[in-house]
Amino acid sequence: MNHSDLNWITNFIWGIADDVLRDLYVRGKYRDVILPMTVLRRLDAVIEPTKQAVLDMKAHLDTAGIVEQGLALRKASGQAFYNTSKFTLRDLKTRTTQQQLKADFEAYLDGFSPNVQDIIDNFEFRNQIPRLSKADALGTLVEKFTSPDINLSPDPVKNSDGSIKHPGLDNHAMGTIFEELVRRFNEENNEEAGEHWTPRDAVKLMARLIFLPAADAIESGTYLLYDGACGTGGMLTVAEETLQELAYEHGKEVSTHLYGQDINAETYAICKADLLLKGKGEAADNVIGGPEHSTLSNDAFPSHEFDFMLSNPPYGKSWKSDMERMGGKKGITDSRFNIEHTNGTDQAGVPVPLSLVTRSSDGQMLFLANMVSKMKQHTKLGSRIAEVHNGSSLFTGDAGQGESNIRRWIIENDWLEAIVALPLNMFYNTGIATYIWVLTNRKPAHRQGKVQLIDATSWQRPLRKNLGKKNCELSDEDIRRICDAFLAFEETEHSKIFDNAAFGYRKVTVERPLRLKGGRNYSPPPR
């Protein structure tokens, strides 16, 4: 399917919001209905051909008294999800009363498999049904999404003469449509967008910074990708695409497994839905999220190590509630944030662990410590990391405090490859300075003991229209220029190279002795 067809379908779905939800919702809330309905219609269309097979299997399993039915029902549906209700969305179009439609629609939702239930619950979509039903909008919504004017099925729709009326939508095309809808809704809600959505240009740069230096060393095989603040999942999917492209260019065949975690319920639901829409059922199962799943206090992957990691964690945001759940600042024993490192011994000669616990007002550096704790230690390639930070990660915290200890731990282990200063006003919800930290535990010989600082603040092009605070973007040429400077590892106007030792410091308290003059206390005038 070509780009114009995809754009037409996206516009059609976008138009449903104005047609059905105007005067019922403010524009900023259209997404609460349109995104979950888009997911439901696509999933419904995918499993429609095997609907009867699933119902037959369900009846057989119930008769046999089998409790664990998920695997068999997935096999019957031919997908990573299923629906055991007797309805499809098309069936619901024939309901003559809003009361009957509401009851049957709720039964339809209840029939989905647990992974789809998780998406519905985190979208909080059931909360919208009474409002839609009361306004007599639920039936119209179902009718619009099942309209013969669009096809969200993977199978083509044919005319009576056998010619194709609407081509089928493969998983990639459907994922593209869904991503475009998310992007548009984010632009409509600029005050919220930047919290959970990293601009695609920044993501493309981050992906290339972690993959390009390792491109020649990547072998055919399986690689694990991780994002501890995955939001809507854009970083993981772009990273996967970048890795696949580089592997293909180098004549390698790679498979990837995506892992992510996010505390925000809606963005977690979007991420999981997007992966299901792209046919990535396993990846959807490997994304964990919701308010009870904070990466800091409830690590979903404590025993995992990953090949490539990238993230844009929240910065300037309190993590006090996480700290309290972990036992308070003095009671945190999590091995991610208390590490064995040269930090002296106590009076009994027992080594003192280095505490990486930061101020409760800003936990962004802890996300970096979390990813460092998941680096592979026993593989040839090791691990590579790219993470976005604001300027405070460069300097906050006195010697001995958490932020400083994290920097010390990273630099003394020679994991920090580079820090790239990005243009101002590149992100949606902030105009402050932002930086990409690039780390690896397999530095090449010529980089060992060194850190590269790249000033890319002037490498950008203006947007024709501001998107929130974002008024510029990185063009493909800008991304190439930054990557070339990174790979060249040379001193230039925009690239500076320093020894690791240049970043070390200690805080020393100098006591000023009392000075007496003529037997009386004397203090010199202030200077």
Describe it.
There is one protein chain. The protein has helices spanning 3-21, 31-47, 51-63, 70-77, 89-92, 98-110, 114-123, 129-134, 138-145, 171-188, 190-196, 200-211, 234-249, 265-277, 281-285, 320-325, 364-372, 392-395, 402-412, 476-488, and strands at residues 157-158, 164-166, 221-227, 254-262, 287-289, 308-311, 338-339, 354-355, 384-390, 416-421, 434-440, 450-455, 461-467, 470-473, 495-499, 516-517, 520-521. With 527 residues, the chain is of the alpha/beta class. The chain has a 9-stranded mixed β-sheet, with helices on both faces. Helix 1 (3-21) crosses helix 2, helix 1 (3-21) crosses helix 10 (171-188) and helix 10 (171-188) packs antiparallel against helix 14 (265-277). The protein is elongated. The mean pLDDT is 89.
**Strand adjacency order, main sheet:** 5-4-3-6-9-11-10-12-15
Largest sheet: number of strands, sense, barrel closure? 9 strands, mixed
User: Rg, please?
Assistant: 27 Å
Q: How much beta, percentage-wise?
A: 5-15%
Structural class: alpha/beta
Distinct helical segment count: 20
Low-confidence stretches are none
> Would you count the extended β strands for me?
17
The helical percent reads 40-55%
Distance between the termini: 74 Å
What average pLDDT do the residues reach? 89
| Mass-distribution shape | elongated
